[in-house]
Amino acid sequence: PFAAAxxxxxxxxxxxxxxxxxxxxxxxxxxxxxxxxxxxxxxxEVPAALIGNGEHYALEVAxxxxxxxxxxxxDTVLIQRADTAENGTIVVALVDENEVTLKxxxxxGNSIALEPANPRHETRIFGPDRVRVQGRLVGLLRRY
Length: 144
Fold this sequence. Notes:
This protein is an all-beta fold. Helix content is 0%, strand content 46%. A hairpin with an 8-residue loop joins strand 8 (111-115) and strand 9 (124-126). The N and C termini lie far apart (56 Å).
């Protein structure tokens, strides 16, 4: 004489699969900067949980200068569009209006240092008028 527990209502499935489509603007150098490239036709599906508010885009990494930050050649980085970044942030930096690179940014006095995360690559130092932040790293996708 024990009663069966009443049936539980079915749980709503979590919407973990929600995705957004981001424009994939081509390849970004994580090494020697490459000429700025915008491929307006390509896009990539990204889990919505990987990005926050604001405008975002994706870039494919070319090179090994950020490997110690866990960013490998062929990875897709997710970038939040921004024109400022705090010291130590990994950014998309436009150098001299024609080269784009993925590096950690540090401001020192009147200079801007773009630091790699690989000891085989050198930190490059520029005057403040030569570097423009175009976005901040917020996520990374990798296929095996």
